[in-house]
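Weekly puzzle thread! Below is a chain. First person to post its structure in token form gets bragging rights.
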Amino acid sequence: MQLKNKRALITGGGSGFGAGIVAKFATEGAQVLVVDINAEAAQAVAAAHGARSARADVSKAADWAALAAHMQAEFGGCDILVNNAGITHLPQPMGDVEEDEFDRIIAVNAKSVYHSARHIVPLMLAGGGGALVNIASTAGISPRPNLTWYNASKGWMMTATQSMAVELAPRGVRVNAVCPVAGETPLLQSFMGQDTPEVRAKFLATIPIGRFSTPADIAEATAFLASDAAGMITGICLPVDGGRCI
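Winning reply:
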């Protein structure tokens, strides 16, 4: 059990990759707080894996302050943070994305990492160290057309990961990112625009292994990077992409 007794906060844990990460962390012995903007989804995943849950909008500082207080009160601190919550826009020319949608994408995908650094990293530092894993995307490495602002938000997350890693390494906090290729999650249809056999085939043709990623794929990589087995690894952005970015 590579995460035994580790105290972990996982955002976007109510579905998709997040739910898979919760399941893996629980199996590996972690004490998990499942966080999602959908309170019922978070509760359901938490109940299935003996975890705790909390509702939060990761774009809001007040919600992060509440999560930090929750982790301190319930678990006495935080050892692992997984910034998994994320959203996208439908495929379309960059100039067609409305400003309010752009703002929301940046707030959820990028500003949430800033909030987590202000509110959760201090808990890790107080406890002597920890591990932070940001769930980025292959979109930040090899962008698809018509997803410009989503691509940019994930590129931002990757740069933030590396800068945070350099700054926090001397203080005992490792920071890494996992970069999934498109997966069987609620966001898949948003990436494709329409879910048809033809569109799926076009997507799959760009992945040498020939399949979409799964929550289990992303969970395995995340658990490793969060574990003590990765104690000498910080600042990497690990593609879990079936070869798409080669």
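Puzzle host: Confirmed. Bonus trivia for everyone else. The CA atoms of residues 37 and 55 lie 5 Å apart.
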